[in-house]
Amino acid sequence: MTFFTELKRRNVIRMAGLYLVGAWLLVQVAGTVLPMFGAPDWLPRSIVIVMALGFIPALVIAWVFELTPEGLKRDAEVKPEESIAPQTARRMDRLIIAVLILALVYFAFDKFVLAPRRDAAMLVDARPPASTAARKSIAVLPFTDLSPTHDQEYFSDGMAEELLNALAKVKDLKVAGRTSSFSFKGKNEDLRTIGKVLNVANILEGSVRKQGEKVRITVQLIQTEDDFHLWSESYDGDLSDVFQLQERIARAITDQLKVVLQGDQRTRLVPVATENADAYALFVEAQTLVNRRVGDSLPQAIALLQKATALDPKFARAWSKQAVAYAVLAQYVGGDWAANWKASDQAAQRALALDPNDAEAYAALSYNQFSRRHYVDMVKPMQRAREFGPDNLAANNWAANELSAMGRTADAEARIDVALINDPANPLLLFYKGIERWRAGDDAGTIALARRTEDRGSVFGAWLFALHDATVGDFDAGAKHFASGVIGFGSKLSPANLEAIYRGSYQGETLRRAALTIMVANADDDWTPTFLMHLGEPERSFADYERSKTGLSDAYLNGLWQPEAWSRKARQSPAFQGFAKRIGLLDYWKQNRWPDLCSPTPENGPDAFTCR
Questions:
Q1: What pLDDT score does 467 carry?
Q2: Which of 368, 429, 367, 426 is nearest to 402 (CA)?
Q3: CA–CA separation, 101 vs 478, rounded Å?
Q4: Is 609 helix (H, G, I), strand (E, B) or coil?
Q5: FRET pair for 171, CA 20 to 30 Å: which of 48, 105, 268, 426?
Q6: Please, which residues bridge with residue 229 across strands?
Q7: CB-based contacts of 136: which residues, under 8 Å, 6+ apart?
Q8: SS3 assignment, position 503
């Protein structure tokens, strides 16, 4: 009798299967249920350890003993004709099948019931619980286009955004960020759910009917806790009256929420941005396109903004929005990086000449300096942007981006957390939060944020999944996630080549060399320096980055602070010392703050430092 046959006869193999399936089910259920009762963190971990320690003893018992009608007896003491091992085997088979069915039921319940609830709960982890939502809080949802030809969607969205911006400036009124509020467009979500996700007590819905110069805006204010309609009204006027219409709506809302207006807001809530109604209509449509940043939305937006500033050269907001669009144009669409930065700077300066407190203009100036690799020079304009627009979307996104790229992970995450309080569903903020969690070793938090980012329709969610996939050895899924994420952000390489680069980063020397061959054939791709870093070639990567003139500072520099081996190899390379000095990182660190993973070593020279 062979050893394997003896294992089968004594039901050792069945015991192993039953033990493993049962232990997995117990661990999964304990991990879900125990936290609900406030159990300490060590208890689920202890269960895993006990299950692991008990595996070998269980197999030893199955080998040494046999279950008989008189109880457990040593196998050597049971006569073959008295053995009931076959009957026991059949019972164990049925038990294994039953446990497997329970495991499948639990898996389905966890995936389709518990997981969505966990993700919804994660949406509020950066703010107080929904039940504590301030009574004086509101989200403005995108307005519905009720125009006769239904061709005013961007204008309708823009009108909602204009009201949101006006209300956001009201002291003591909490207003959910534009990106989070607009993420529910077209989803027909229950208003109570939206209120919980955005942590607001009230929601403003509305519609716009625009026909020629005539405009009708209909709005309704709804309490999220009980779906009670507090107030609704329709406002009619000409396009030239649009600021007055917005003023009346904003004041009606503050009256309904019993917000006490202070200072200049007692006389005016909605500033008159331009006297030219046509220029304003163009601007309202363009700002929606700038926020989309997909397809040809940015070129379309720039064309509309150019028309708006031609109609009214003193329209400051149209100039600053143009500066934002040009700042990211090459990044999303391609083209001449330097020419776009210059156009963005010029538009920002025109805006600041008209309005010295324009936060978006300062944010664009800072981001252009960052893209040009003038890291010291990006600091002051970003400080001004945050001073004049603490809740400004561009300022918050770019400030976190710059801090993260400089290696200041803790500072970047703190900035993101502040921004997420008012904008908890912003995919860019969620993505950067995921990156910071990944750097901190929080795998579970990274995956939760990847799901939330993906749910918001962002390709960056795939990027976060790709990082996790490599750690669990799922390189097939990781390669596909990586390819879709990078293609969504401008690489010209084919999906097959991008998948090969991902595999070469993680799966051994043969695949790494194959990926390097691909990079030789595609050396002009904007992502080449980043990919070379991933492939463990820091010296070549640094040299390529210095030669290139692209504005991918964020993607490239963020790669230096990852926990992966290729990232650690890059920042610990002797070549990194000179590289950091030549491109301006060292000057930035000396004048501001050192990266979380690096510190100066003055005993080795004035410019020496070490990274872990």
A1: 92
A2: 367
A3: 29
A4: strand
A5: 426
A6: 222
A7: 172, 173, 174, 201, 257, 258, 259
A8: helix
SS3 category, 493? coil
Tokens for 297, please give them: 């939305």
* Dihedral angle, C-alpha 260, 266, 269, 273, nearest 10 °: -160
CB 561 within 8 A of CB 409: yes
Average model confidence (pLDDT) across the chain: 85
Based on the domain organization, do 28 and 103 belong to the same domain? yes
SS3 string, 201-237, reads CEEEEEEEEEECCEEEEEEEEEECCCCCEEEEEEEEE
CA-to-CA distance for 100 and 21, rounded, in angstroms? 7
**Which CATH number fits the domain that encloses residue 347?**
1.25.40.10
Residue 71 phi/psi, 5° resolution?
110, -165
pLDDT at 310 over 90: yes
**Residue whose structure tokens are 């890059």:** 570
In a domain, 445, yes or no: no
Partnered with residue 204 across adjacent β-strands are 140, 221
Give the pair of three-digit tokens for residue 31. Answer: 């991990």
Alpha carbon separation from 408 to 401, 402, 411, 413 (Å, rounded): 10, 9, 5, 9
Whole-number percent of the chain with pLDDT over 70: 89
Instruction: Show Cβ contacts of residue 46 under 8 Å, excluding neighbours closer than 6 positions.
Output: none
Report the largest interatomic distance among the alpha carbons of the chain, rounded to a whole angstrom.
103
Residues 111 and 158 in one domain: no
- 568-578 tens-digit pLDDT: 999 999 999 99
Residues 6+ apart with CB under 8 A from 239: 210, 213, 214, 215, 277, 278, 280, 281
Are residues 438 and 467 in contact, defined by beta-carbon separation less than 8 angstroms? Answer: yes
Residue 233 dihedral angles phi and psi, to the nearest 5°: -165, 155
- Alpha carbon distance 262, 541 (integer Å): 55
Closest CA to 329 of 352, 357, 313, 305: 305
Q: Are residues 136 and 245 in the same domain?
A: yes
**Residues sharing a CB contact under 8 Å with residue 299, sequence separation 6 or more, in sequence order:** 329, 333
Report how far residue 257's alpha carbon sits from residue 253's, in angstroms, rounded to the nearest whole number: 6
Q: Which residue, 89, 122, 155, sits at the end of a domain?
A: 122
| Residues 596, 612: Cα–Cα separation, whole Å | 9
Contacts of 206 (CB under 8 A, 6+ apart): 141, 143, 144, 159, 160, 217, 218, 219, 220
